[in-house]
Amino acid sequence: MLPREELLKGVENRDSIARVIDQAEQAIKTWEVVFTDFLSPPELAEIQQVFGRLTEVQLLAWGGYPQAERQRIAIARSELPLDQSLVALTALDIAGNFLFDTATHRDFLGAMLATGIVREKTGDIIVLGERGAQAIVAPDLVEFLEMNLKQVRSVPVKTQQIDFSELKVREPKKKELTTVEASLRLDAIASAGFGMSRSKMVELIDGGDVRLNWKDVSQASSHVKTGDLIAVRGKGRLEVGEVAVTKKDRYRVQLTRYM
Question: Which DSSP letter does residue 173 get?
């Protein structure tokens, strides 16, 4: 048995981690590969941190493509081989003519959930503009969604399974930059990294459009450090690199922006 109370001590995503502990114990007992539902980035990060110190089991997260945010975890005994091909995922194409009725990520997700499925069974949704979208889902949902997902907003759609090689995933562009700031406040670093005014960044933070290390953040005065990841909805991500103090006691910060 795994040290449940020790693993759960001080964690934020207690319910999710408790479920993974149950699944890990099942994997140890049955010598089978066991899968979680799709997990959000904060859940994934904490689960991998918590289970990283165990030797009895191994975990492998995969969401269908390298930059996927929502992923399933395959859990197996350490002695068993484990690779991405074993993670049970399916890709769907949701095709329609959205030229005159543009649909967002929220629209596609809402239409999928309106069929009666739960969020935990869906991974990333890749919006393709006027052509529709593609979605990663659990394999047992494919037939159901092909039959029941017929409309998004006012647009009729055809939903069908596709090969993962057909995913239209855009490789993120990367830009390296350096900024010198009086403090390591979130609003200061993020506004410099995303090239916008500090007041505009504060507005985005107040509006719930900014996440720090995949967690919602509402305080513009929150401080960042090396290794932190700042995500702004619709504008990409910013990774905080090396931080150095200048002779004038200001902070020189290396940043990498992914667009």
Answer: P
